[in-house]
Amino acid sequence: MERKNAWETYDEGQVKELEQLNREYRDFLDNGKTERECIDTIVNTIEAEGYRELESLIGSGTKLAKGDKVYSVCMNKSIAMFQIGEKPMTAGMNILGAHIDSPRIDVKQNPLYEDSNLGYLDTHYYGGVKKYQWVAIPLALHGVVVKKDGTTVEMNIGENEDDPVFFISDLLVHLAGEQMEKKASKVIEGEAMDLIVGSRPICLGADKKEEDGAEDADKKQAKEAVKAGVLKILKESYDIEEDDFLSAELEIVPAGKAREVGFDRSMILAYGQDDRVCAFTSMRAMLDVKETDRTMCCILVDKEEIGSVGATGMNSRFFENAVAELMELLGEYSELNLRRCMARSAMLSSDVSAGYDPAFASCFEKKNSAFLGNGMVFNKFTGSRGKSGSNDANAEYVAHLRKVMDDRGIIYQTAELGKVDVGGGGTIAYILAKYGMNVIDSGVAVLNMHAPWEATSKADVYETYRGYKAFVEGASM
Fold this sequence. Notes:
Elements: H1 12-31, H2 35-47, E1 52-53, H3 54-60, E2 69-74, E3 78-83, E4 93-99, E5 104-115, E6 118-126, E7 139-146, E8 152-157, H4 184-187, E9 195-198, H5 205-212, H6 214-222, H7 225-238, E10 248-254, E11 259-261, E12 267-270, H8 273-288, E13 295-301, H9 318-329, H10 335-343, E14 346-350, E15 353-354, E16 376-379, E17 383-384, H11 395-407, E18 412-414, E19 424-425, H12 429-433, E20 438-443, E21 445-446, E22 454-457, H13 458-474
Parallel strand pairs: 1-2, 4-13, 4-14, 14-20, 15-21, 16-18
Antiparallel strand pairs: 2-3, 3-13, 5-6, 5-10, 6-9, 7-8, 7-10, 11-12, 12-22, 16-20, 17-19
């Protein structure tokens, strides 16, 4: 079956709308390189559109009604957004679900050390990465340090033009004969991915030397003087002590802004598009739908890249608890009603798909691959090698979604992730499917997935936004 190239279908007005949406998307990527930054950006955006915090409504005992917009945040890393529909919650919801964590490098809890006149932060990579892709490129440091008194210090270093950047070193090619013989997974070892953060030893100054005595000053300067210099800068700039790393969450990400790609500027190259491209389009679709029969929901979660575990992952009870609290404020809550609501809901597990890459054609089965520019992607099933770990959407639900999309002129395609025996992947779909609801994977095709810089088509971003909007407006069966 041939699928349309979306670019060939647009009129001038649609191209203008597409470009505006993608400008907003690039801003979202630049402002949200971590889960916490994404949540801050999302909350600021949706509060301006009339959303109110669920927890504050619970505290005041405020009753909810049709059209009300509420949200709930979990530990500053996950969020659930709801817009109340005409029908009771027991009729189910139309749910868009994506994740806002991305592969990266995390700073360990006891990280700072010095070796051979270089200062380092010890690290632990997060999610599925090709480790060799992260060396010898400019890197930025984002995150928070929480001090014992409860003070939270936010850090974002490496994004502004006058900021310093950091890097992980690689071996020069002249000495890399042995390294080049290794498997790609071993070319760079995980414990070798330490971040270089300085090389200048602390200078005590002439006055300090006279005060302490030259000999004592020389000893202090000789012992971990580069590390001492880094700590001095952290103290002066952020009021951080070395022990404060124990309660820090610092993430190392590629430095730099999202950029347009190609002479025709038809693509976007940026960090973290898996899966913030689906998070952004899901949020934007929710905001642009005024009212629906069924309650609309957008759930954006953490930890998908490491198995959806923990309090902020999809496997937690955060989402279920938020729905229960929402139903209580609507006067509908009971355990049975909650179960009915979840089972009768319909969901798009909004996650990216692998874009067909002609340079690596042997890994794809072409007629069942996603192509950049061919619109929103539906993956009936995910998993790997025999659909292991997959949610497999039923035919009735797929047929219904086909009608929803076709009736609204959405450009879409279907795909699976690579050849049957080559690989595969998963999303949060199987977790929501446990409630008995209809779930299917859908999103945007990506080149360079999980690399420091990923590529998407502007047309696919636009069609996915339109598809999500069509879904929340008309997904009930």
